[in-house]
Every structure is written in structure tokens, then in C-alpha cells.
Automatic annotation (TrEMBL):
It comes from Chitinophaga oryziterrae. Its main location: membrane. Residues 372-836 form the TonB-dependent receptor-like beta-barrel domain. GO terms for cellular component: cell outer membrane. This is TonB-dependent receptor plug domain-containing protein. GO terms for biological process: siderophore transmembrane transport. The keyword tRNA processing does not apply. PANTHER family: HEMOGLOBIN AND HEMOGLOBIN-HAPTOGLOBIN-BINDING PROTEIN 1-RELATED, TONB-DEPENDENT OUTER MEMBRANE RECEPTOR.
């Protein structure tokens, strides 16, 4: 037995000597000399080679240590420790000798943070909502409102994929970018079809956590059919489910049963109190200067506050940093121009625009003369103008400052001539806003934004009557004026912190100073020999101070479950009265298999401002007023759930949402009260305070890609109000309660030069309060036998007991574009109300004494309206 063992040991020693295996195979240390030559092989291959040649065994967990990364090594008689340092240290892999083996592990935080901006390569315009994604790690983020992104990833990440709708994708190598701010410039594409989006991106697209949030691309706005040739971001939003655009032709937004004052409309972060021109035909937002628009109708992030129903967050262009260019257009009733370019190339830029209608020139001097060739008739003048400007300066890679401003005004006048009689009525209303903003990057994960805002809205109406009698004692001169104004001055500091891809934390605080002039009335009477009367009412000024503090966290709990949780805290001081509010916000999003997503949210909103709405006129005579001791702040609670699905190629999307919302401390004028018949009384003595509720469901089917694009939206909704001293305390349908609403929008690219679009809207009739009976004359006679100058008294129905006819309308548009050597020209042909549907604008009671009858007359103001607009881009 011993001879056999001796013989076996001799064979092993002979084999070792013949094969030349180094003696270190049985006894190695950190100074063992090794020779290795490998080109572009995985780390695992290096470990296997060392084990085979030198007997060095490696122990590690495949779930923790990734040895698939490739290396190139050429070492001749190099100490083992030096070799291991060379190949493992770049990948943050630790090694240690435990017993007779080397144990591999990784550093606790082998990460790098990549941050910077994404912009247009031609103009330097920062891109909002661009996707920054790591396909290997399946982690990503989106750029914020200023084009900034921050993404913390494992240090071995090789590259990132950056994509944005309408731009070619970009691959960003990340080696050596740990402490550098990067600028990613994307190249625009001629066709949206050329955008490449990977399947992984589509499944894990970040930034879509809030339900009831819609990004409104400017390209969609400009593709919509245009009323009188003008594209309109507010009209595009009004075509979405859950939103109605007010009365026919009106520019208001009524969202999920709310009123127009419950919408927070922001232009570069500054609130805008009135959003329409020309009685709603145009909006105050020139589409040529709009860069992006986000619309929220539920699941409000905690950074927004002060309104109950919706948020429209519009950002203006920054201005081209490279070249001067612009646009100009002229249509049937308005003209506009926009120019942008660098002041200091790659350092300072500007953008400016101006619009004006010339309806006053078209309507001026339309005086009807009587048989005696004397002036007898009416003249009507109405026009608007607005201007935008924005300056943008880069101080350093970490600091940037913006200034933007807006000013707009509407003027509407009626004048009646009847020989010696001369009656004039004037309406003026408009907005002024200003924004000063400073962006600062503290470090790659912390972004800050300091803002100063100013906003003002004014409304005034004046009336004069002049009778030039032959006898001066019979002469009459009456003058009246009504004036209202609201001003906001805002200071705010916002922070955005991204510790890792799973968390984006936003927090900030601010202060708002509100100044209200709810409605000052001035009356003058210099008639005949009477003593002159010159007096004013309601010239009180209310000052309110609002403070706010918020924090929110977008948290990817798992790859399928995302949460947006936040808290908005605010307080309001007016007339030594203190109100406060704690508003929790929660949004959940869970991804199911086969590209289905379930969402739900709960939001609590508070509003310290009120709008007194005058129901007897469609002019913007509404008054902004603060909460007082008699009228408390409004608040709402909204719960919504939804489910959506995206097709595998991202061409189609489908969504269904349901919501329930309650509102408290909503206000409305008491019966028989309005803004014009309450001189001398405080406004909070004229209103009723009550509660409201709204609920319903919304469906949206959308085609996002291809030459044919568009959407179909349907809304089924209920909205009610209840006041203790209105309608006998019974609940009634709110004046914007619309049971059914259908919106169909289609755009089609025809060849390279033509784009056609169509939109069709159908909506149920609005609630109406109408008379159901008439009182007899004062002397006991019938109304028809009474003095013709004696008004007939009506017995009104319960509040909003009747409804108007259903409304529907088709709008069409076609745009022809041709590129010249130095500019691009386009012709836009549009048809508003293409089949001339006579939709009701308002109803009035008509008394025909000759026929001894009274009836409801329906008034329509917007018939079939064709238009043509010529535009150039240079």
C-alpha cells in the first residue's frame, strides 16, 4: 500500500516539474509576481486565469459584485496587490484576503451624480420634460421647468439616453462627469416619426406620477382649428375631458364643476386674473411666445396652492442664444409679431411679442343716419392689444437670471346718437404682470429658484348721458364710473433635491401681499339748474397677507409603485383676522402588466380669494374680493381614481377617470343683487355663503403619433350648489353644470406643405332661471293695459330650473407652409362654426304689447366665421 502511495506522489511531482507550474501555487501572498495579458475581457476572465495559473481563489456574490465589465491588462512579473488595485479600483470593487482566498465586495456607495441642462442645439432654449434615462440600470428622470436634471446612478454606468418629443435621441457618455455640469444639445427633427424611443423607456417612463395632469405641447396648440386664424392654448385645454369653455365664445375655463376664479393660471409663475381678449375670442397668451403648458385638474402637487379646481402653468420662451429670428402674421381682425435673439451670444438673450386687433378701425364711424339726414344710430368699438418681453442672462454654470413681463388691455365702447341725445358707455379691462427669477445650483443634487412676482388686474366701466337742449336749464349731463382692481406681490423660494433616482423632494416657502379695490362707484350729475352732485361709494381698500410653506416627495417605492405625497400649509391675514389651512396631497400610481396603469389621488385645496360673478352680462364685470369675517375662505376635497393604457408602440393611449369633489364657503349674489345695483353697500353684505359638490367621469382616447393625430374626449358630470338663503335653501344645479360633453379633435398632415385639422364639440345645455308668471298692473289692470312705461313684474322660477338648448359646433382649419431661401411663409384658412349652428349665447324675456304676449328670445353672437391669416418666419 505504501509503495503505491509513493509511486503516486512521485508522478505528481514529476508532472509539476514538467508543466512548470510556479511554486507560488501552493503559497501566494500580496507580493507574488504574476504575469497576465488580456484584451477586452471580463473581470471574471482575469480571476479565472489567476486561479488556473497561480491557484488564487476568488469568492464573491454575483448579486453584489458585477464581474462582467471588460478590461484590458498587460502585466509582466507584477506584484499581485498592484495588479488587483489596477483592475478592481476603477469599478469600486474591494478585495481582501480571508484564509486562503480573496473575497470581493463593492463599496457601500459606488455612485456618481450627473446633472446639467438639456437644450435645443440651434437656439439654446432649455427643454422642459426631456427624458434622461439609463437603459442598463432602468432608472431615469426628467428635466424640470428650467431644463435642469440631476440623476444619481451606479458609478459604473457608461452612458445615458436623452430623448425629447420632436428631437433626435442623444447618447451621453458619463465617464468623468461626476462634478461637472453638462449641457446636452438635442437636434430637432423634421418629423416626429423619426424619434427613437426604446421599449424600456416606454415601460419605465419617469415623471408621469400625477393623475389628471396633461402636458399641452405647443405643436398641438398650433395644429388646432383657429378661431379667426389665432391659435390658443386656453381653447386647446377647453377641448379636454372635464373642462368646458364657459359660454359660447367665452374664454373661461370651468373645470370639474368649478368656477373660473377657481383656476390658478400662471405665466412664468405669476398669477393671471383674466385670461381672455375680445369677449373670449382670443386668450391673453400669444402662442408664438409660449414654450410649454402643464394642466392639472386633480392630484395637485403640494407646490401649487390658492385655488380649488385647476392649475394651468405656462412658461414663456427664453429667447434664442444663437441667432436673431422671428415671426409675423396678419389676419382679418388682428396682427402680431415676435422676435427673439441673443444680446450677448451664448450669454444673454431676449424675446418680445406684440399683438393688436383692428376691429375698432373696421367698426368705426358706422353711424346710421335718419330721414332728416341727422346723425341717429349707434357706433360700436372694441379692440385689444398686448405685449410680452423676456430677458435671460447666464452668469455662470450655476447661476441664471430671468425677467419677464406682460401687459394687455381690452377696450369696448358703445355710443348712441339721436340728434341732441348722446349716450356713451365704455368698458376697459386688462392685466399687467412681471417676474424676476434667479436659478442657482448648489450642488449636482440641489437646485434652487428664487422668484419675485407682480400681478395686477383692473376693470372699469363708465357711463355718460348728454342732452344738449336749446334752453340751458333743460340740459342734462350725467356721468357714472365703476372701478375695480386687484394686485398681488409675491416672493417665493423653491428648492428641488434629488438624492437618488427613487426620490425627488421639492420644498419651499413664500409670501403674497394682496391688495383689493372691490368696486368704487362715482356718480356725477350736472343737469339743468340743480346743485351739482359729485359723490363716490365703496372706495374701501382691503389688504391681505398670505404665507405658504410646502414639501412634496416623488418616491418610487418599487419599480411598479410610485407615490407623490406632499403637504401645503398656508395662512391668511385680513382686517386682523387670521385664517390657516393644512392641505394634504397624495397621488398613487401602480403599473400593471401589459402597459396598464392604475392611479388614484386625494387633494385638499384652499382659496382665500373670491370672485363675485355678475349673471346679467357677459362682460368681465366680475369682482375679486378677499375672505372677510363674514365670508370665510373656500376649501375643497377631491378624490379621484383612474386607469390608463398605452399601446406597445406608444401610438395610442386610453384613460378613464372618476372624481368626487366637495366645496365649502362658495359665494353667490343673493337674489336680485348684482354689482350695479348695490352702491353704498359692502360686498360681503350682498352675497350668500354655501357649499357645492361635483362628481363625474371622463374618458380620453388619444392617437399620439403618425400623420393622423387627435383625441376623443367624453365627460359625464354633475355640479350643484346650496345656500341657506337662496332658492329656499334647496340645492340647485350650478350655472356651469353640463351633463354631457363630447370633444373630437383631428389633425392630418397632407404631404410636406399642408396640415388640416378639425374639432367638433357637443355639450348639454346650461341651467337657466326664467320667469314662470307675470304680475298684473298696479291699478289692477292686466299687464297689457298698464302704462307702457310701467315695467311688468315677473315671478321667477326656482334657481336654474330650466336649461338652454344643447350646443354643438364644428371648426375647420387648413395651413399651407412653404420654405423660401430666407424665410418660411404660411397661409392659414379657418372656418369657425362651419355649418353655421346658432348656439345660444344668452336668453332674454321679450314683451310684445301689440300682440299681448311675452316670450323667451334666444340670442346667438357667433355665426359662420371664415378667416385667412398670412404669416412668415425668418
Amino acid at each position: 500500500m505504501k509503495n503505491k502511495e509513493s509511486s503516486m506522489m512521485g508522478k505528481v511531482l514529476l508532472w509539476v516539474m514538467l508543466t512548470g507550474i510556479p511554486g507560488q501555487v501552493f503559497a501566494w501572498d500580496w507580493h507574488t509576481k504574476v504575469t497576465v495579458a488580456i484584451h477586452e475581457q471580463p473581470l471574471q476572465a482575469v480571476c479565472e486565469l489567476l486561479e488556473q495559473q497561480y491557484g488564487i481563489h476568488f469568492s464573491y456574490s454575483r448579486d453584489i459584485v458585477n464581474l462582467s465589465r471588460k478590461v484590458t491588462v498587460s502585466a509582466q512579473e507584477k506584484p499581485l496587490k498592484d495588479l488587483l488595485d489596477e483592475i478592481f479600483t476603477p469599478f469600486d470593487i474591494y478585495f481582501a484576503r480571508i484564509g486562503g482566498q480573496i473575497v470581493l465586495t463593492v463599496k457601500k456607495d459606488p455612485q456618481r451624480t450627473v446633472s446639467g441642462y438639456v437644450q435645443d442645439v440651434r437656439t439654446g432654449e432649455r427643454l422642459i420634460g426631456a427624458t434622461v434615462y439609463s437603459p442598463v440600470q432602468r432608472l431615469g428622470t426628467t428635466t424640470n421647468q428650467y431644463g435642469f436634471f440631476s440623476l444619481t446612478l451606479p458609478k459604473d454606468t457608461c452612458s445615458l439616453q436623452i430623448t425629447y418629443i420632436g428631437y433626435g435621441p442623444f447618447r451621453l457618455p458619463v465617464a468623468g462627469l461626476n462634478k461637472k455640469q453638462v449641457i446636452v444639445s438635442l437636434q430637432p427633427l423634421n418629423s416626429l416619426q423619426e424619434v427613437v424611443v426604446t421599449e424600456a423607456q416606454l415601460e419605465r417612463q419617469p415623471g408621469q406620477m400625477q393623475m389628471s395632469r396633461i402636458n399641452v405641447p405647443v405643436s398641438d396648440v398650433k395644429s388646432m382649428p383657429r378661431l379667426l386664424g389665432e391659435a390658443d392654448v386656453m381653447r386647446t385645454i377647453a377641448a379636454l375631458p372635464g373642462v368646458s369653455g364657459g359660454l359660447e365664445g367665452g374664454g373661461e375655463l370651468n373645470v370639474r364643476g368649478g368656477s373660473p376664479d377657481q383656476n390658478l393660471i400662471l405665466l412664468d409663475g405669476t398669477p393671471v386674473f383674466n385670461t381672455s381678449h375680445l369677449l373670449g375670442i382670443f386668450s391673453v397668451f400669444n402662442p408664438d411666445i409660449v414654450k410649454s403648458a402643464d394642466f392639472y385638474k386633480g392630484a395637485f402637487p403640494a407646490r401649487y396652492g390658492g385655488r380649488l379646481s385647476s392649475v394651468v402653468d405656462i412658461t414663456m420662451k427664453d429667447g434664442d442664444m444663437q441667432h436673431v429670428h422671428g415671426e409675423a402674421a396678419i389676419g382679418l381682425i388682428a396682427a402680431k409679431a415676435m422676435v427673439e435673439g441673443p444680446i450677448v451670444k451664448d450669454k444673454t438673450s431676449f424675446v418680445a411679442s406684440f399683438r393688436r386687433s383692428y376691429t375698432d378701425l373696421l367698426l368705426n364711424n358706422l353711424i346710421v343716419k335718419g330721414d332728416d339726414n341727422k346723425q341717429k344710430g349707434n357706433t360700436v368699438n372694441i379692440y385689444f392689444y398686448d405685449a410680452n418681453v423676456k430677458l435671460n442672462h447666464i452668469f455662470s454654470a450655476k447661476d441664471r437670471i430671468y425677467f419677464s413681463g406682460y401687459m394687455g388691455q381690452d377696450k369696448f365702447s358703445l355710443r348712441r346718437y339721436d340728434n341732441a341725445d348722446n349716450t356713451r358707455t365704455h368698458f376697459d379691462w386688462g392685466n399687467t404682470t412681471g417676474t424676476l427669477r434667479w436659478n442657482h445650483i448648489f450642488n449636482p443634487r440641489l437646485f434652487a429658484n428664487a422668484t419675485l412676482n407682480y400681478s395686477q388686474y383692473t376693470f372699469s366701466t363708465s357711463y355718460s348721458y348728454d342732452y344738449a337742449a336749446d334752453n340751458s336749464s333743460d340740459a342734462i349731463y350725467l356721468y357714472g364710473k365703476y372701478y375695480s382692481r386687484i394686485r398681488d406681490a409675491v416672493g417665493k423660494l423653491d428648492f428641488e433635491y434629488r438624492p437618488n433616482p427613487a426620490h425627488t423632494v421639492k420644498f419651499g416657502f413664500g409670501r403674497i401681499s394682496h391688495t383689493f379695490n372691490p368696486g368704487q362707484s362715482i356718480l356725477k350729475n350736472y343737469s339743468g339748474t340743480q346743485a351739482p352732485l359729485d359723490t363716490s361709494y365703496n372706495d374701501e381698500v382691503y389688504n391681505g397677507k398670505e404665507m405658504l410653506l410646502y414639501a412634496e416627495d416623488e418616491w418610487n417605492i418599487t419599480s411598479s409603485l410610485q407615490v407623490n405625497a406632499g403637504l401645503h400649509i398656508s395662512g391668511f391675514v385680513v382686517d386682523k383676522i387670521w385664517y390657516n389651512s393644512v392641505q394634504p396631497r397624495l397621488g398613487l400610481r401602480y403599473q400593471l402588466p401589459h402597459r396598464w396603469t392604475v392611479k388614484m389621488s386625494y387633494t385638499h385645496m384652499n382659496q382665500y380669494l373670491h370672485l363675485l360673478t355678475n349673471s346679467v352680462t357677459s362682460l368681465p364685470t366680475d369682482l375679486w374680493v378677499p375672505s372677510t369675517s363674514k365670508v370665510k375662505p373656500m376649501f375643497s376635497k377631491q378624490t379621484s381614481v383612474g386607469i390608463c393604457k398605452t399601446s406597445p408602440n406608444n401610438m395610442f393611449s386610453y384613460s378613464v377617470e372618476a372624481y368626487y369633489k366637495t366645496m365649502d364657503n362658495v359665494i353667490e349674489y343673493k337674489d336680485n343683487y348684482s354689482v350695479f345695483n348695490t352702491s353704498g353697500k359692502k360686498w360681503d353684505e350682498q352675497v350668500a355663503v354655501g357649499k357645492g359638490s361635483s362628481y363625474g367621469g371622463e374618458v380620453l382616447l388619444e392617437k399620439k403619433k403618425g400623420k393622423l393625430k387627435g383625441w376623443i374626449g367624453y365627460t359625464l358630470a354633475w355640479s350643484n350648489r346650496q345656500f341657506a338663503n337662496v332658492n329656499d335653501g334647496q340645492a340647485f344645479p350650478y350655472k356651469y353644470d353640463r351633463r354631457h360633453d363630447v370633444e373630437v379633435v383631428v389633425t392630418r398632415q397632407l404631404g410636406k406643405r399642408w396640415e388640416v385639422s378639425a374639432s367638433w364639440e357637443y355639450t348639454s345645455g346650461l341651467p337657466l332661471t326664467l320667469p314662470t308668471a307675470s304680475y298684473e298692473g298696479i291699478d289692477g289692470s292686466s299687464p297689457w293695459e298698464a302704462n307702457p312705461n310701467t315695467p311688468i313684474l315677473d315671478h321667477m322660477s326656482r334657481r336654474n330650473q330650466f336649461r338652454s338648448r344643447d350646443l354643438h359646433r364644428l371648426d375647420l382649419s387648413a395651413t399651407y407652409t412653404k420654405k423660401k431661401r430666407l424665410w418660411v411663409k404660411s397661409w392659414t384658412f379657418s372656418l369657425f362654426n362651419a355649418y353655421n349652428q346658432q348656439n345660444p349665447f344668452y336668453y332674454t324675456v321679450v314683451t310684445d304689447r301689440a300682440k299681448q304676449e311675452r316670450y323667451i328670445a334666444e340670442v346667438s353672437i357667433l355665426p359662420f366665421l371664415p378667416s385667412v391669416t398670412y404669416a412668415i418666419k425668418f
